[in-house]
Design a protein that fits this description.
The complex is a heterodimer. Chain A is of the alpha+beta class. In chain A, 72% of the residues lie in helices and 8% in strands. Chain B is an alpha/beta fold. The longest helix of chain B has 16 residues. Classes of the chains: A alpha+beta, B alpha/beta.
Chain lengths: 301, 227
């Protein structure tokens, strides 16, 4: 094929978007609506995950040191704890600090503990911040295996609950996005089918004149790609606008729960490239593939 | 130019559209194909354009064996044939100019050639002033002339006209057949399907009559007989 023919076919595709503007509008509308739904569902899912992730970050375990350990031993134990993958922070709390903290908690009754200052019953300990709660059990076992560790305290129930919530959100989010994608694909496929069906006469005329399949398909492909790109850009801008509106509304509320959640929402600019990339790929992929697929049906003249 | 050799075709619903047809059309001839609806005229045209393949027999058109032809050879074969249909079959969202130019564009010729050739052909069918019109802005007769221009623009050796006068005024019908006649005089083989006996009577040409899928009469010019 000559360059001039190729140029003609590409410009034909662009011209067809305008020439068939009502069907173009319908296709862009349907594709945009589908992308928006999927995008919104995804944003809800990652935000829920981010909030749960914050709660998870607050989770700690305590590790207590054997009485015989001296300063050098404690240093060694701290190093060993830091080697464990799933622990992202190790904070040392000495016997004296532990007693002090307890006395602070007792406020005016603190004098009851004064006699312990010479005979401190609290052990030296470490406060451990855990990364992934779902493997808390294994991590605790690793901690207890460190020489010099007497015992641990960790809330396994809370950890299990948070892990369950997180998995639930991930699964529900994936299921909803998957389901919406499937429904969208059916709707978009039907829209493209109608568009191409409306122009089956044009396809058959071109065949009678002696056009090759490629010559007929290429403008449809270009048209599909353009409509997909437009849909991607429109839905990206709408999603962005909608998200900012919601953020604005949330930042103005008095509810402390909302405030806590708000602090940990994902910022749109952080996910914007990902969203835009996914939208453009999905829009152009569906537009291009869809138009190519359905034209094929009418090429057998 | 056209060789039908014992061609038969039965559609899946059991209709026997063509029944052992043999027909020769030589280069430069002008042939009318007449017959009632259902006589097999449309199937004959579809065979000529390689839209249908016979179940038995052989078809050769313009040097191509249509039975043995591969699918990818079809476009090249069709470029050598001009076709005009009863319903014009112009692309509705293209201008008159682009409709005619399209037949050239598929052949991969240069833009420069297209710019010279299309106005020339439009002038030939007396539509030079309508190049920028859309098909639906034209009368039936004008649309048919656009279709004729598109059929001629590739300088085909065979022109097939399927009821070209079916959708236009009777006086204009004569003009169209006149035009076909002129084209024929320049060496193009013309095959015209029609059921308008007045036209056939007016123009003294070879007439092939189809009935129930068979050729029941084939009369050369002058020695023509009535149905």
């Amino acid at each position: 094929m000559k360059t001039s023919s190729f140029k003609y076919l590409v410009s034909e595709g662009a011209r067809n978007v305008k020439a068939n503007r009502f069907m173009s509008l319908a296709s862009v509308g349907v594709l945009t609506a589908c992308l928006l739904l999927i995008g919104a569902a995804w944003l809800v899912a990652i935000n829920a995950n981010s909030i749960v992730g914050y709660v998870e970050d607050q989770n700690e375990a305590m590790a207590f040191v054997e009485d015989w350990a001296d300063a050098d031993d404690i240093q060694e134990i701290e190093e060993a704890l830091k080697q464990i993958d799933n622990i992202h922070e190790v904070i040392y709390i000495s016997k004296a600090q532990a007693l002090e903290q307890q006395m602070e908690l007792l406020e005016e009754n603190a004098f009851l503990f004064e006699e312990f200052e010479n005979d401190n019953p609290y052990p030296d300990s470490f406060r451990l911040k855990i990364d992934d709660l779902s493997i808390l059990g294994e991590t605790i076992a690793q901690v207890e295996a460190v020489k010099g560790i007497d015992g641990t305290s960790a809330s396994a129930d809370l950890a299990a609950t948070i892990t369950d919530i997180k998995n639930g959100i991930s699964f529900a989010g994936m299921a909803i996005v998957g389901l919406l994608s499937l429904v969208s694909l059916v709707i978009v496929a039907n829209t493209i089918k109608i568009t191409v069906f409306n122009r089956r006469k044009e396809v058959s005329i071109k065949k009678y004149v002696g056009a090759t399949d490629l010559f007929i398909r290429l403008p449809f492909l270009v048209e599909g790609l353009i409509l997909g790109l437009i849909s991607a850009l429109v839905s990206f801008l709408l999603l962005w606008g909608g998200y900012e509106l919601m953020m604005n509304w949330m930042s103005g509320t008095e509810s402390s729960w909302f405030m806590m959640a708000f602090e940990h929402l994902v910022l749109f600019k952080d996910v914007a490239p990902k969203v835009l990339g996914a939208f453009v790929a999905a829009g152009m992929g569906i537009g291009g593939l869809g138009s190519m697929m359905f034209v094929g049906k009418f090429l057998k003249v | 130019m056209i060789h039908f050799d014992h061609v038969s075709k039965t559609y899946p619903n059991g209709t026997r559209a063509l029944d052992d047809i043999s027909l020769q059309v030589e280069k430069g001839e002008f042939v009318f194909i007449v017959g009632h609806s259902g006589a097999g005229k449309s199937t004959l045209i579809k065979m000529l354009l390689r839209e249908e393949i016979p179940e038995s027999g052989n078809v050769e058109v313009n040097g191509y064996n249509l039975v043995k032809m591969k699918r990818r050879q079809v476009p090249l074969f069709r470029r050598g044939i001009g076709v005009v249909f009863q319903d014009f079959r112009l692309i509705p969202n293209m201008t008159v100019y682009d409709n005619v130019a399209f037949a050239l564009r598929v052949t991969d010729v240069s833009t420069k050639f297209i710019r010279r050739r299309v106005p020339y052909i439009l002038d030939l069918v007396d539509l030079a002033g309508k190049a920028k019109c859309m098909p639906q802005e034209l009368s039936g007769g004008e649309q048919q002339r656009v279709a004729l221009a598109r059929a001629l623009v590739n300088n085909p050796s065979l022109l097939i006209a399927d009821e070209p006068t079916g959708n236009i005024d009777p006086q204009l019908s004569y003009e169209i057949v006149d035009l076909l006649s002129e084209i024929n005089k320049c060496g193009t083989t013309v095959l015209m399907v029609t059921h308008e006996h007045d036209l056939v009577a007016e123009f003294n040409k070879r007439v092939v009559t189809l009935r129930d899928g068979q050729i029941v009469a084939d009369s050369a010019a002058r020695g023509r007989r009535a149905l």
